[in-house]
Amino acid sequence: MSDTALMEAAERGNLEGVKRNFNQVGRKDGYGWTALMEAAMRGHADCIPLLEKEIGIQSNRGWTALMNAVLNGRIDCTRLLIFETGKQTTKEWEIIICDEIVLFPPGTTALMIAAHQSHLEIVQLLFPYEQGIEDSKGNTAKWYANKGASWRGDFTRVRQLLESEGTERLPPPDPELLRLRGRIKELTTENDSLKKDLSSSKNTLEETRKELSQSNQEVSSLKQQLDNAIEESKRHAKMCEDLQKASDQNRALTTEKAALQEQPIKTIEDLKRALADQKAQNLALEKEVVQLRTESHDMKDLRIRLEEVEEEKKVLLQNLAAVGGRLPPAREDSSLISSAIQGDLSTLRRHLDQAGQKDSSGMTALMHAASRGQTEVVRLLRPLEARLQDGRGWTALMHAVGGGHEECVGLLLLERDLRDGEGRTAAEHAVDEKMRKVLVHQPSFPRLPDSLSGYHLTAVLGRGAFGDVYAAHKGGRNVAIKVVSLGGYNVEGRELLRREVEILPSLDHPNIIRCIRGEENDLDSTYVLVMDLCCGDLREEMSRRKKANSSYSDQEVWKTIREVAAALAYLHEKRLVHRDLKPDNVLIASDGRCVLTDFGLTKVLGDSSRMATFAGTLPYMAPEIHQGENYNKSVDVWALGVVGYELCTGRLPFSNVIAIAVEEPPVIEGRGELAALISRMLSKDPKDRPTARDVLEEAERNKQAD
What we know:
Elements lengths: L4 H8 L2 H6 L14 H7 L23 H7 L3 H6 L12 E5 L2 E5 L5 H8 L2 H11 L10 H7 L7 H8 L13 H85 L3 H59 L6 H4 L2 H8 L2 H6 L14 H8 L2 H11 L10 H8 L2 H6 L14 H4 L3 H8 L15 E9 L2 E8 L2 E9 L5 H13 L11 E7 L4 E7 L3 E2 H10 L6 H20 L2 E2 L8 E3 L5 E3 L6 E2 L18 H4 L7 H16 L7 H6 L10 H9 L10 H10 L5
């Protein structure tokens, strides 16, 4: 049987549709699914009371609506379907969860599913009713917690809760409770409505009292106005006498006016002559304007011809170079430009001091790279040469649009507001409809404090855990601006943001992101940080290497470890612990230098030099953090060891949280001293790990001359 109209309405959460098709309650599709199961799986809790007659029905594999709600983490639906606890599946079922195939055998319960998915709140809710139940293989919920999705949810607390799993269980609640809850909700709503009506009546009474008081005041005012009118009448009689005197004076003035009206006749004749002279001057001026317009049109033709000549010159120079001739000096000296044209990144980095130079046509290295679709060159040069324009007023973005290079266009959106010499934007250069839509769409930018109003936001660079990052420019300088809204954070979250704002400006190290300026905007409750603009991050670089099947050499790994260790050693000597070191938080500067960023979780060490807060990103967190123990600055060294392992092997050293605590990582093959150092950094005991300074010194000893 196919889906019924009731099932489709429940799947969409359409309450009116559910009520309209209520006569289909109890029907199943070909897999034994009901409308209640559809609503529970998608979290439409408001549909469940309407479908209560389907509570307890199981699908062809024995799954209930409760199990579907639990699998998808629907806590509100789980509370309403608690009456289905105690039921077990009847057949085996393979499900794909986060790209992994998970097998649930017969006898699976809702508690086992919640434990596997690490849904702590749901586990707490189902535990009294389903603890101790075994599936067809003799496994309980505790077994599912240890073998489940350890990267999601609160795995540690779920595991601790199920340590006390026994066999005594409460019976499932009576479904009648659902109807009683619904009736209680209706009565509560009705009671709230009555309270509002009573409050409204009280307000109306108070307003009536105020109106009565106001009316009394108006009556008193009218009495005063009447008294004033009587006094005014008396003054009016006196004014009549004065008016009669004024009338006599007016008659005398009228006689004088008649005598004066004869004099303007001569003056009008003079004005007519002056008007004729002015018309003659206007005609002369109009002829002069026509002549100037003709000359202006000729100048425009000359400019157009000059641009055509420049284009022809550029083509001739390129042809000359192709047949072995010599290029003009401006082009010969620009090694940066020639490296960009060839896409030679290593040579390009050696000539970054030439950034901003132009060839004979006014094009920069970034423009040449964009016109040829050299994505990595564009990514490298964007912070240094973005928003420059060539002789025609074209930007690098316009060159990328003209060449149809979509990836380069995405990197250069911070130039989309600029216009060329003819007043056209990059969107007006686009021929492809898809590309035009990308360029025309203007993102909404936040308002900056008045003290930073000189910075102009041009593009969104990324979304971070503690704020959004935008490209901006001021006075020809390109920067990154991080804007964090405090509206969506609790007290703890706001404290983390204030910590980053306070810490960043105080740091001065070549391998730590430089904060140019920081401001708090009280008007819209935001923090604003102005920072250097970098080319990308280590995560993006690792992903590109993996797609290209290109591994890191030993010296490349040593360089990354050396530069990040230098940043950590600097932080640790200032009694600061980063606590969230991962490839995403290591930026790549234009000169290839690694730069540590994102200090939202950074902690200042107290007198004890130890901490206990659960913080960080799971795959990069040291075992002592996962186990709830106190920890110190060595957790940063562990995280750097995980990053180093990834650079050497292309994969994480541990598959899940349990492996971090109890297993040793697979041995790194063929990396010599590098593998030995990373192994020490990943020691389970913090005392056995080297310090950041030790790592830096060993990396310096393995540094090769450029």
